[in-house]
Design goal:
Strand content: over 45%
Low-confidence stretches: none
Structural class: alpha+beta
Shape: elongated
Number of strands: 4
Distance between the termini: 13 Å
């Protein structure tokens, strides 16, 4: 029976998708009898891009785009064998990057 904690870090571009994925992970962990701490929202990183509209005539005008990286952190305390098995068989929504550390 494993002792310690499992740290789950989630990354996504859409905040609704990452919240849905974190809720699925929490429900799976609580169902197996583990204690859960989180989800803790980590700082959101913004990436700004400016693309020039045209190479010749509209050289001074551009379109502005923004991309945001949303992050969440979940700690699963006192995991059981069922908890680890449940996390490995979990189907998360598309667009969510998950990183699991034991």
């Amino acid at each position: 029976m494993p002792k310690g904690r499992i740290r789950v870090r989630l990354k996504a571009y859409d905040s609704r998708v990452i919240d849905r994925a974190s809720q699925m992970i929490i429900d799976s962990a609580v169902r197996t009898g583990a204690k859960v701490s989180g989800p803790v929202p980590l700082p959101t990183r913004r990436h700004d891009f400016t693309v020039i509209k045209g190479p010749f005539i509209d050289k001074r005008s551009g379109d502005h785009f923004e991309m945001r990286d949303h992050n969440r952190l979940i700690d699963i305390l006192e995991p059981t064998a069922k908890t680890i098995e449940g996390l490995s068989h979990l189907n998360l929504p598309a667009g969510v990057d998950i990183e699991i550390k034991m």
